[in-house]
Design brief:
single chain, four-stranded antiparallel beta sheet, 2 helices, 13 strands, disordered N terminus
């Protein structure tokens, strides 16, 4: 009897030891898993997927050139558009190409520039129409070049400091941008445009339209740091 009782007690002790070993192993495994979960999270102070980028706005007062030739205006593609809120909203929609756009000065009664305004400064609007049947996205600064009546003097307009964001144009829809213009009645120090060349953002080809005010001249500020004639962003 004593030998049987001793055997049962030994077996119970063996079971208790085995259970303690299993419990300790489970605790170590849980601790290791918790450690891995913490190390896999985002870095402190930087939310997952965050980025820091600002939209193109040119220099204050329009000191930065339009760069209408070669590169086109400041555009809405890639990281720049995403920073301005346009890249994600219009994902899958291609940018507006020059060949799918039509440009014209807005010449309605409300759109005519006030050439008798304060110091001759006023604004004029240029309309961009999506003449295709497909939607496209556009945003940023167009390149705008003026050419004089003799065709030999080119003026690449500077950009304003306004913020911009991209927008989507459905087929047949239009958007616009404005030009700040400084008219003059003086017979010296003036610039008389004849044509306006508009290069859409991120494009290299231009749209050419006629200057509609053949009897009105601009103050010639082609070499000025902060000219009163400059271009504002689309939209």
């Amino acid at each position: 009897m004593r030998s049987n009782a001793t055997a049962r007690i030994a077996r119970r002790r063996s079971f208790r030891v085995a259970a303690a070993v299993l419990t300790a192993a489970a605790a170590l495994t849980l601790t290791a898993c918790n450690g891995d979960a913490k190390s896999a999270g985002p870095a402190d102070g930087a939310p997952a997927g965050s980025s820091s980028s600002s939209g193109s706005s040119g220099s204050s007062g329009g000191a930065q050139g339009s760069d209408a030739k070669g590169k086109g205006g400041s555009g809405a593609d890639g990281e720049q558009a995403a920073a301005e809120g346009g890249g994600r909203a219009h994902a899958g929609v291609e940018r507006c190409r020059t060949e799918n756009l039509e440009a014209a000065f807005a010449t309605g009664e409300d759109a005519l520039p006030d050439r008798d305004g304060d110091g001759g400064s006023t604004t004029a609007s240029i309309v961009l129409i999506n003449k295709s049947t497909s939607s496209c996205r556009i945003g940023g600064f167009p390149g705008v070049d003026l050419t004089s009546i003799n065709g030999g003097e080119r003026w690449s307009l500077a950009r304003s400091s306004q913020k911009w964001s991209s927008l989507e144009l459905e087929g047949g829809q239009s958007t616009s941008f404005t030009l700040n213009l400084a008219f003059t009645k003086e017979e010296e120090g003036f610039y008389q445009p004849a044509w306006v060349e508009i290069t859409p953002p991120n494009e290299t080809k231009s749209l050419k339209i006629e200057w509609p005010w053949e009897n009105d001249s601009l103050v010639d500020q082609r070499g000025a740091t902060r000219p009163a004639t400059f271009v504002n962003p689309i939209g």
